[in-house]
Amino acid sequence: MKITETAQNFRIVGDIISCEIYGDGHINRTYLLVTSKKRYILQKINTALFTEPDKLMANISAVTEYLRATRPDKQTLTIVPTLQGETYYSDETGAYRVFDFIEGAQAYSSASKELFAASATAFGGFADDLSGFNASVLYEVLPRFHDTVKRLADFKAAVKEDKVNRVKDVKDEIEWFLSHAVYADMLTSRLADGRLPLKVTHNDTKLNNVMISPSGEPVAVIDLDTVMPGTVCYDFGDSIRFGCNTAAEDEPDLDKVHFSLDYYYAYYDAYVAAYPKMTAEEKKMLPFGAIIMTYECGMRFLTDYLCGDTYFRCTREGQNLDRAHTQMRLVDEMIDNLAAMSRG
Ligand code: ADP
Ligand code: GN1
Ligand code: MG
Known about the structure:
Layout: H1 3-7, E1 16-21, E2 29-35, E3 39-45, H2 53-70, E4 79-80, E5 89-91, E6 94-100, E7 106-107, H3 113-129, H4 148-161, H5 171-179, H6 186-192, E8 199-201, E9 210-212, E10 218-221, E11 228-230, H7 232-243, H8 261-274, H9 280-306, H10 319-336, H11 338-341
Antiparallel strand pairs: 1-2, 2-3, 3-6, 4-6, 5-6, 7-9, 8-11, 9-10
Helix pairs in contact: 3-7, 3-8, 4-9, 7-8, 7-9, 9-10
The protein binds adenosine-5'-diphosphate, 2-acetamido-2-deoxy-1-O-phosphono-alpha-D-glucopyranose (GN1) and magnesium ion.
């Protein structure tokens, strides 16, 4: 079935003009749907990963309805229902959903320090706005998503299995991840014993998951697929991992890849200001969140490389390995800067 025919199953207004692939997400297939009246985002949900789209969409509904009710001054995702009034449509080709297009803003894959700070205001505000939300109503759609100890176990299993015979080519990288395993349980153990509070977190706080206006105002947090209970250190850390890299996540030339302390400070200060309900332990662990999320993501990239590149969308040979290398470089430089990263 053509994608424009799929779009006809939603309560969209106007006549369909076009429906083209859009954005640079790694997980879902995103289309810009244009009608004679409005623009929409249509997404084919990655059901290989999100095996229960009803639960996924229930999470997004719950969080966006809460945000709309408690922060009517802010924008959030708006689900466009199907003709039957459901949150998504499915047929033999897959599961699809439609959101209103958030106008007057854009998602950036790289940004100035000011725009990066604006994303911190958005994500810090997200944490603050949701601190009163009852996390127990959410489904854990991707169980143990940021459980770095589990990610390390999965990585070791992939090394052992050596499915596509690549272990021989990445011995040094494997050794590097094993030698940094001390970081794996620093957040999970604190969540387990209550030192870190369990909060509703976004869990995928890359720069391109926040919409920012041309004048640099944060407009909306998007990509709510991974909203689940967690620690804000995941969210802070993942933002730093992506946004404090002086190069692209998949940059093959490591000479271009550095951790920017300057960008880190810009994000840190804006995040702390936007999230006044932050606890002392959360604040203390923010720099470790950055190291751990970067370590974990690098390990996930290398695991996917060892499994034959089946998880993260790749457009060229060796892309996941390049991604793993950038994360390793960033972790090394963050560790060198750890004292400076603790702002007191
Ligand atoms: P993925 O999970 O694959 O990353 P996203 O939900 O982040 O998918 O969407 C991919 C891109 O599509 C975003 O980076 C953004 O540019 C754009 N996008 C997604 N939702 C909207 C929206 N409601 N309005 C405008 N742009 C959007
Ligand atoms: C994926 O969907 P996207 O591109 O925003 C991934 C994140 C990774 C990120 C790395 C559900 O995010 O966990 O940090 O790629 N999302 C999922 O770029 O696995
Ligand atoms: Mg995204």
